[in-house]
Amino acid sequence: MLALAVVLGGCASRPGPDALVPSLTEAPGATPRKVLVATTRARDMNPGVLFNGERGTGLDFATVTLTVPPTHKTGAIEWPRQQPGNPATDMVVHEALYRDTDAQFVQELNAELAKRPKGQKDVFVFVHGYNTQFAEALYRLTQMAHDADATAVPVLFTWASRGKTEDYVYDNNSATAARDDLEKTLSLVAQSNAEHINIMAHSMGNWVTVEALRQMKIDKTMIPPNRVGNIILAAPDIDVDVFKSQLKRFGKLPKPFVVIVSHDDKALRISDLIAGGKQRLGSYKNDAELVALGAIVVDMTDVKSEGDGLNHGKFAQLAGLRGQLRQSMEQTVAQGNGEIPGTVEIGAIQISGVTAATQFPR
Question: Of the residues 72, 78, 205, 217, which has the maximum number of CB atoms within 10 A of its CB?
């Protein structure tokens, strides 16, 4: 565990304890982004924290509006340098409100969906990973939504991670305990007017996500196939053998899981050691085997990580490349008369398992 703390302690700069203090200052060119929150974290009396790393008594909700500065760089998070932040140069919170009931959450979600035209009433649910403060998860989702210029309503499902390297076991147990609440959150999202529901999980958040979806499959409460968007597993901190057994239980999926891997992921190497030498899915080197199991594999091994010495957060860079990736893949399909090669290379990214029937998000 000491080795884990030493290695993971080298990650990028982190927000202070009051990173969510609201700023009412207006800045020309700053872009507002509203995020809906569903969480198993406990509320915090500090207005700069909102939710802490302890486990709450049940599913809780909030709505947070942030602004992205006009000087924003793709893939980056511009943390407030002092409180309250400067919206001209920092990503800052403009307003944060607790929501007390399931009905309020769905009502808020429908209100946001109503602002989108037909055909763009989508939801993007993000589930963060280990060692993640609430503010970090919130800002990361905001960064991805902004960089992708996405029209989908961003929904953050955040479980009780303490955001400390030494609390791996606590985080793992918190993630496991959050499965039912993620299942409930996805069911609430499915009750909304969303046309498509997209899900992305990162690192340990994949354990929560795949288990919640597995429960829904067993209970026959799965999201209707025509409303399932993309299910993206980024740098999954899941035992490869466990994932294989989970896929067998799912059977044929309406859409394959999109698995983002990087063979140089240092964080997952440490997780391998903790797990007794069992390789994690996010660093698995046999892309062809995962494709044979029914997954689409996005291999980012050769992509240079921006500001992340552990190579564990490369997935966030894909948001700024969304349009380029979609265009390149569609051109590849068109040039091949509907057929595509086994592996498509787009810059340093390799994508395996895509078929002509694959739908590209807009």
Answer: 205
The structure tokens 């893939």 sit at 75
**Cβ atoms within 10 Å, residue 197:** 22
- Please check the confidence at residue 116 and state whether its pLDDT lies above 50: yes
* Residue 146 φ/ψ, nearest 5 degrees: -70, -50
Judge contact between 68 and 77, C-beta under 8 A.
no
What span, in angstroms and rounded, lies between the C-alpha atoms of 260 and 278? 18
Q: How far is CA 312 from CA 118, 234, 303, 362, in A?
A: 36, 9, 12, 25
DSSP string, 98-121: EE-SHHHHHHHHHHHHTTSPTT--
The distance of Cα 327 from the centroid of its chain, to the nearest Å, equals 22
Cβ contact 183:158 at 8 Å: no
Task: Please return the burial class of 110, using the count of CB atoms within 10 Å of its CB with bins 0-12, 13-18 and 19+.
Answer: middle
What token pair was written down for 194?
């969303």
* One-letter identity of residue 195: E
Q: Phi and psi dihedrals of 330, rounded to 5?
A: -65, -35
- In the numeric block, which tokens belong to residue 9? 């302690």
CA distances from 86 to 40, 174, 277 (A): 30, 34, 46
Distances (CA, A) of 256 to 3, 79, 253, 358: 36, 35, 6, 9
**H or E element at residue 201:** strand 196-202
340 pLDDT more than 80: no
Give, in degrees to the nearest 5, the angle at Cα 325 between 327 and 190. Answer: 100
Q: What single-letter amino acid sits at 94?
A: H
Q: What is the mean pLDDT of residues 293-311?
A: 87
Q: What is the pTM of this model?
A: 0.92
- Tell me the Cα Rg of the chain: 19
Give the position of tokens 């552990």. 310
| CA-based nearest residue to 21, from 54, 63, 66 | 66
Q: Which token pair is 75?
A: 């893939």
